Known about the structure:
Layout: E1 2-4, E2 10-12, H1 23-36, E3 45-47, H2 50-64
Parallel strand pairs: 1-3
Antiparallel strand pairs: 1-2
Amino acid sequence: MKFSEAGGEQQRFVVLVIWFNHPLFVQLLKEVEDEYKLEQIGTVTILCNVHHFHTIISRIVSLSF
């Protein structure tokens, strides 16, 4: 999965499939869809602040244990 800040460089991250069902990750995808109206074919690219992504993943991981 690639994450890109608007007008910025892309960064690639490996995302666990199970995270796609986590409410925080679902909310991130919904926010991106609402803001950018993106349709994806192939590799998933999400336009968002990379720091925001790290924060969400940290919260998901901390809530998982």
